[in-house]
Every structure is written in structure tokens, then in C-alpha cells.
Amino acid sequence: MERVSADQPVSIPLIPFSAKDRPSTDIINTCVHCGLCLSSCPTYRETGLEMSSPRGRIYLMKAVDEGRIGLESEVFQEQMSQCLNCRACEAVCPSGVQYGAILEASRAQIEQARAAGKIPARPGVPSEVPDNPALPPRPLWQRALRGAVFGGLFKHMGLFRAFTGSMVLYQKSGAQWIARKSGILKLLGLAETETMLPALSGKMIAPRGQIFPAEGQRRYSVALVTGCIMSTAFAEVHEATIRVLQKNGVEVILPPGQGCCGALHTHGGDLDGGRELARINIAAFEGLGVDAIIINAAGCGGTLKEYGHLLHDDPAWHERAVAFSKKVRDIHEFLAGIELNRAALGRLEISVTYQEPCHLAHAQRISAQPRALLKAIPGLELREMHESALCCGSAGIYNVTQPEMAARLGARKVTNALATGAAVIATGNPGCALQLAGELRRRGKDVQVRYIVELLDESYRRGPAPAA
Ligand code: SF4
Ligand code: SF4
């Protein structure tokens, strides 16, 4: 038997991309390394490191693709995690690199390798996967959060609503006050995350096939995606959305059987979880004969419009997914595309700055429409902020997985917003709304964060001033 001496280097095979959900070599090779995307990348802007830029990350993907490094590379894993998936790089890339697709596939590769116990470790570091030398385990609370998000919570809306109900109780019973004062949240490493929890009213919207008739003559019929967080923590935004659509002669249907869009899953490397949810939603919205499927959350909209890509390998669902995605319209896109009922808008004498959700501005390239709607409100003064389209650091569960970078970007965004002196920061995505409100609370600033549809709703509810 051959003896191996202790100081003889042992060659550990690199872990390659596996066939399932492999990042496309063609897309990776579309990058010509011109660097034109660097200045649009929030993590590059914050760190100045090539490695933390889109080009640097594509280099890392290419290195795994060509077998020069493996999935176990700490740099690779860290950079795939540190990326916000904001897709600002994709929007400015002259070569048309579909960055979001290769990032999500790379994350899926990491999660598959972790789940299969393949990722080997640095010596002496405990394994996350039993019986397998591996990377340091993720902190307990991160594992609990990932388990909740990618496990059952977001897949069963009944469970999700029950969970939200327990959070309402936590806030209203005084348990939140005790938890904050006692220091237990700090001890559990949850103090920062907990500040993001919005004040919950307890109002929830469960889609059961309700039909809200158009006001006046019916011009369109649409179906509303109620989602998970939007239907629980932001139910009032859904109510505002419905009223604004009705005011514009639009009938609104809330189809039963729908659920979470799967954005958190697809962005976080659980592509199969995202597919499961996509199939549920496609089935729920099929055959309604509506003019459009409306979504009022930017992150969800980006995902709903890409169901065709998500299910491209599924012959039974691909065509149905493409047909679904074709009908999806972001609320701002829809309202700006029809003749807006301007005559019924009332005056709102407020100053507003607009922070662009990444998945609206970059993933869906919707930038002018939200501004056009704000400008349509009589009396409203729109004050543009510096770096409106630079990610605020929310990015799904990013402020839990990358709290330091999330805090830096949140602070940067709020500083830019406050510099305008506006009384309201308008946005169109729950993650952004929570991130901005959390940072404003930390600074003790009395600036409101509102959805654009809420402002439109308020304007409609005031109604036009009576003629003199
Ligand atoms: S992603 Fe696009 S913009 Fe960025 S370096 Fe590659 S080709 Fe250039
Ligand atoms: S998705 Fe955003 S954070 Fe990630 S590389 Fe592109 S610009 Fe940078």
C-alpha cells in the first residue's frame, strides 16, 4: 500500500457546476470585460474592489465554469452572497449580459452543493452538513430564517397569515416593548432585523375571487396579484391600488388559489421552490380573460415577468408561463399606459422624492412611468434625489444575510433622500419601504415613506376642488 506522508500536499478535487440549473456558459462569455457596468454597481461603489463588481463576479463564475476554482471557493460564495441582484449592471451593459440569470443559477449551484453535503471545508472548521467537512455553518438565526423562507412559511398562505397574526400579537401585547428593553434581541443577534418589522395593523387581504367593479363605464378588467407580504403587512396599499384602478374605470378581480410569487426563492438560490410557486400562480390566473395581471410590488413584478425563463425546461408549463408573464403589468406601467382619470385628482400640497426600486428600474426598465404619475397629482412637487436608482440595500433577505453592506446602502439612500428636503419618500416595493422606514426611524426623522398608489389614492379621495 502506498504511504502518504503528512506533509505531502493532498489534492482535493474542485467542485464543478452541476448540470441542473447550470449558469449558462454562453451568457458568461457574453461579457467582454469592458467595465462599463462598474460605476452602476452599489457594492463596487461602496468598496472600490474589482472582486465586488459585476465584472469581478462574472470572472468568478467563469473560473468555476472552466474548472479553475470550485464551488467551495470562499471568495466565490461570498461574492455571490454580497451581490444584491439589483441588476443595475444588466441595465447598462452594452453587450446585453443577462446577469440576473447567471447570478441566480450560481446561487442555486451553491445551495445544491450545500444540500448535497458536497462542499468541503477548511481543516478544523465544523461542518454544516453532518459527516462532511464543510464551510463554517451559517449562524443559527440565518439557518432558521432560510428554513422559514425556503421551507413552508411562504408556500402556504394560511400559515403565512397565521405567522403575521402572531407578529401583530407580539406588537400589540407589549411583548415587543419587553423584547426591545430586555436586550434579548441583541443577545440573539436580531436587534437590527427586528427594527425592520413595520407597525402591523392586523388588516389582511385573502383573495377569494372578490370582484371590485369599475367606477363609471368599465374600460378594463384586471386581476390583482395579492402576494404574501403585500397582502398582510401592506394590505392598505392593496386597498389603495384597488380604489385607484376603480377610479380609472377598471374592474379588479382577486383570484383565489394564488400565493407568494417566489421572488425570495429564485433570488436566494431555491429555483425549485420558485418554480413550485410559479405553477400555483399560473394555474390561479389562467382562463380569467382579463386584460392584465396587475402587481404593485416591484420585486414580485420582476419575478412574475420571468416565469417563462424560470420554467423554460418544463415542457408542461413553459408555454403557460410565457402566456402568464405576457399579461403581467406593474401598476405604474399600467396606469401610465392608459388614459389616466386626471379630472378626478385632488390637490396634494406636498414635496416628494422618488426612490427607484431596483426591480422596477433595472429588471423591468420602468423609470419614467412612476414619475409621470407623481407629476400628474396637482400640487405635488417632485424633488429628484441623487442616486435614485442605486440599491437601498434591502434586496429580499439581504439585510439579514449581509447586514453591514445593507446598512451602508440604506444610510446612503436616506442621506440622499433627506438632502432633497422632501416630506415624503415615494417608492413601489415593500423591501425598499421597510429599509427606508427603518433607517429613518434610527435617525429619528419625521419623513414618511409612501407608495405612489397611496399618494394617487389620497389625491382621488380628496377629489378636485369645486369650481369657484
Ligand atoms: S457585464 Fe457588460 S458592462 Fe459589465 S464588464 Fe461585462 S460586458 Fe462590460
Ligand atoms: S446585480 Fe447589482 S450588486 Fe450585483 S453585480 Fe450587478 S450591479 Fe452589482
Overall description:
- The protein is an alpha/beta fold and 468 residues long.
- It has 4 domains: 25-115, Alpha-helical ferredoxin (Fumarate Reductase Iron-sulfur Protein, Chain B, domain 2); 140-195, no CATH class; 210-336, Glutathione S-transferase Yfyf (Class Pi), Chain A, domain 2 (Up-down Bundle); 342-462, AF0625-like (Rossmann fold).
- Helices cover 48% and strands 7% of the residues.
- The chain has 25 helices and 9 strands.
- Strands 1-3-2-4-5 form a 5-stranded mixed beta sheet. Strands 7-6-8-9 form a 4-stranded parallel beta sheet, sandwiched between helices.
- Helix 19 crosses helix 21 (368-376) and helix 23 crosses helix 24.
- It is globular and about 80 Å long.
- The N and C termini lie far apart (103 Å).
- Residues 121-134 have low confidence and may be disordered.
- The structure holds iron/sulfur cluster (2 copies).
Give the SSE layout:
Blueprint: H1 25-30, H2 42-47, H3 54-65, H4 74-82, H5 88-92, H6 99-115, H7 140-150, H8 157-172, H9 175-182, H10 184-187, H11 191-195, E1 210-212, E2 220-224, H12 229-232, H13 235-247, E3 250-254, H14 263-267, H15 271-285, E4 292-295, H16 298-304, H17 307-310, H18 318-327, E5 328-330, H19 331-337, E6 351-354, H20 358-361, H21 368-376, E7 381-382, H22 398-401, H23 403-419, E8 424-427, H24 430-443, E9 448-451, H25 452-462
Parallel strand pairs: 2-3, 2-4, 4-5, 6-7, 6-8, 8-9
Antiparallel strand pairs: 1-3
Helix pairs in contact: 13-25, 19-21, 23-24
Bound molecules: iron/sulfur cluster (2 copies).
